[in-house]
Amino acid sequence: MPSVRDVLSVLDSIAPSEWAFSGDRIGLQVGDVNAEVKRAVVSLDHSVGAVKACLKSHAELLLCHHPLVMNPLTNVNFGEPPHDRIGELIVAASPI
What we know:
Layout: H1 4-14, E1 40-43, H2 48-56, E2 61-64, H3 83-93
């Protein structure tokens, strides 16, 4: 089964990271590079709808053009965007 690292490697072969602008936020922002990927959702952004589609389809990876985290986080308050989406994704990925 391919891993997140494998998916990122394929993406880098299509759109090399050295082509990114200096301020672009590329790569994995939340998750485990060693996690297996059976399903992925591709979205322009990390909207609530994109996160819900990811969770509903039981996808292990949400690929977004616009980053979830643009500036360094000072906290993760699950009651405020985009922290609420980070929380949903963390909870969904965590074994119970």
